[in-house]
Amino acid sequence: xxxxxxxFFVTGDPLIYGADVSIVLSIIAVVSVLTYxxxxxxxxxxxLTTVDHKKIGIMYILxxxxxxxxGGVDALLMRAQLAMPEMQxxxxxxxxxxxxxxxxxxxxxxxxxxxxxxxxxxxxxQLGARDVAFPFLNALSFWLFFSGAMLFNxxxxxxxxxxxxxxxxxxxxxxxxxxxxxxxxxxxGIQISGIGSLMTGINFIVTILKVRAxxxxxxxxxxxxxxxxxxxxxxxxxxxxxxxxxxxxxxxRYLGGHFFTLDGGGNPMMYINLIWMWGHPEVYIIVLPAFGxxxxxxxTFSRKKLFGYKSMVFAMIIISVLSFxxxxxxxxTMGSGADVNAFFAVTTMxxxxxxxxxxxNWLFTMFRGKITFETPMLWMVGIIPxxxxxxxxxxxxxxxxxxxxxxxxxxxxxHFHQVIIAGVVFGFFAGLYYWWPKIFGFKLNERIxxxxxxxxxxxxxxxxxxxxxxxxxxxxxxxYTYGWDKGWFEMNxxxxxxAVIMGAAFLVxxxxxxxxxxxxxxxxxxxxxxxxxxxxxxxxxxxxxxFAVMPQVxxxxxxxxxxxxxxxxxxxxxxxxxxxxxxxxNSGIPIVMSMFWFFVGFGLIFDWLWMAVPGFIGVIACMxxxxxxxDTDYYVTVEEIKRTEAEAGRVIT
Length: 653
Hints:
Elements: H1 2-8, H2 14-36, H3 40-48, H4 53-82, H5 92-127, H6 135-154, H7 182-210, H8 223-254, H9 268-302, H10 309-322, H11 338-350, H12 352-366, H13 375-398, H14 400-406, H15 410-440, H16 446-472, H17 489-518, H18 558-567, E1 581-584, H19 589-605, H20 609-627, E2 633-636, H21 638-647
Antiparallel strand pairs: 1-2
Helix pairs in contact: 4-5, 4-6, 4-17, 5-7, 5-15, 6-7, 6-19, 7-8, 7-19, 8-9, 8-10, 9-12, 9-15, 10-12, 12-13, 13-15, 13-16, 15-16, 16-17, 19-20
Pathway: Energy metabolism; oxidative phosphorylation
Transmembrane segments: 15-37, 58-78, 98-123, 135-158, 185-211, 223-251, 313-330, 342-364, 376-400, 412-436, 448-469, 489-511, 588-606, 612-630
Keywords: Cell membrane, Copper, Electron transport, Heme, Hydrogen ion transport, Ion transport, Iron, Membrane, Metal-binding, Oxidoreductase, Respiratory chain, Transmembrane, Transmembrane helix, Transport
């Protein structure tokens, strides 16, 4: 037993022991609170079994914040190691593990769920729908994501974290060079959550195409919903590539296949091509919804209609398509030849055109607008120079001959973070501040929000601007230490200080949430920003059925146009005639099925077929049980609708 425990649990590092203690204490605290306040039944009924898209969205957002904390701590540990030459804070192996987990967590387990959280809460409300097309599938998607994320994070204390880089290139990820369970945690954590992501993409495509309010044609649809549609189209085509790629890698490791091993007749470059055929569309999958958020915010706070609506729509679709034609720019130095490099250089430059169109459209929307600088608009304005710099450095990287200088250097690291943090994460922050009143019924504190904004931006520039210079000075990524003779000390120290300031900014945001909860001023208007789209036409937070009466859309920005017509006396509020509302019932099958998937993954990681096979049987059993369950829906009575609306401050007669 002692020998098994020493191999099963990660030992020998004080940081790991600290994590063990914090995990145990957190579990004890959560269980104690739920037991003391007798909330287990409430937790099961209201959250763990819910199919309400808004609650699922909130759970995605909470999971994302948790992962942002974990990934952020990883980043601070790496920057602490690199702050000074010849540091001994982390060993080389531990640094590789943190480097790997940081990338995976931030992209797949932080940015993706934050994006899906906003999808879930906002898109049905913008479309005038009562739920997504497939509520049960939506709940299953979340729990698969969560199970995969927990499985991946478990490797930190059990078995050992993966250490082959966040994209797990062979031969480092093959069994000969990576015999421990860490790489299998990587494969199955991503594989299980990736299935959930694919199902989410399918669900929202169908929702947007089939569940819009009467009168809402595609060209009357809000820009955020258009961005979600573009993103989900890319998800549906990209994520099967990831699923197949990781399946082939697992076959190599588990069954002795040789898809990616040179000595067995395989080719590691095939893996690199496949992973980037998913990986570069993935960048646009997470950035397209941020574009949609910018568009909603800039129109609302400029008090103007979005400039160039149709060009924005076409730009998003073009980006979604072109994102599949640029992947080889990640390995211009791999010897593909001048013709191949030239093709991918041109397609990479082309994708900058529709992206540039968006920036100019946002600027023209602000031009002569009556701009007010509430926190969401502050994020929007701050994002533009950040994203322009990221785009310009991307164009530099697209020049194949120049990329021989930039490749694998800290210039590339700075560019990637410039786009992902300043473009994606800051964009999602802007969306959270903007839609927070709609999600929770109260605004976040403006003063503390501004502190968070400035700390994030100052910290970001301090952290990543020096890294462009470091890259040009010859510092390559994946280094865990360097000598005093390199001349990199000052820039690395400034970069680390910037990372610490961003960590402080995150804590300020948590303080903002806690302060706002304590001193909340409930929004009784449903429309605190004087916004333009349908989600602001209902109470905040939205009732569980969303709309008491389905809206009839007649124009783009229909809610704004309707307010103007009522204000000018051209339209009177319509008489409301309520009818029973058809709604889906909660189900415990999604969370149970995800637990079985967890057992499948955990069993295969440790080659425990006694766990994996029953887990897979459990997955099939859940499918069978659900297929024979016909009691899946109910009707909300007119009396309950009136009571719910009255509680929200709306009297319906």
